[in-house]
Amino acid sequence: MKTKRVALALAAFLIAYVVVTLIWMTIQRQSLEVPEKDTIRVGERVVLPKLQPIRGGPFPQAEGKLLFVTAFSIACPFSAESVPFWNRIRQALPPDRARYVSIGCARSIDELQAFAQRTKLEGDLFFSTCEDVEERLKIEGGIVHYVLDGRGVCRAVWTGMPVKPESEREMLTEILRRVESLSP
Q1: Whole-angstrom Cα distance, residue 21 to residue 5?
Q2: Collapsing DSSP states into helix, strand and coil, what is residue 140?
Q3: pLDDT number for residue 28
Q4: What is the DSSP letter of 45?
Q5: Mean pLDDT of 165-170
Q6: Which letter, b or e, does each residue of 152-175 get, where b requires 16 or more Cβ atoms within 10 Å of its Cβ?
Q7: Domain 36-182 = CATH 3.40.30.10
Q8: Distance between CA 141 and CA 133 in Å, rounded?
């Protein structure tokens, strides 16, 4: 009788463990996936918001190169901690194939400039209002990375959360692989 109770308790524990694990995995997967309506998709033409240069000249034309665009809101709690990785992306992109630019949204240009200075964000930086970024680039207060071709068509997109140090190399390798495969 006692053995039967132990077996039933163990079975109940294992079932509960499996259920909790499956729920956790579903939540993790959903937090990394972007619903269809939330961002620009591969193959869509990107209509950029009205941009004001903070650092760099007018927004670059692709001219035979790809544009790697990081669009972000400084209100996103992950933006500041993601800047070092963004800088590493910019430094790793082959300059003959791609150019890196950032589009930041904030309440004011001064607020974005202060953010860039505080976080040591490198490269060309453009300001837009959050309303315009959300409407045109279909993001809401977060982070999205796009690879655009010379016609402004999205060829790759990554969203969201900060990249953990242990997966940074893998993510950077994936980005560079995609840029290489898309290069004109």
Answers
A1: 24
A2: coil
A3: 54
A4: B
A5: 83
A6: eebbbbbebebbeeeeeeebbeeb
A7: yes
A8: 9
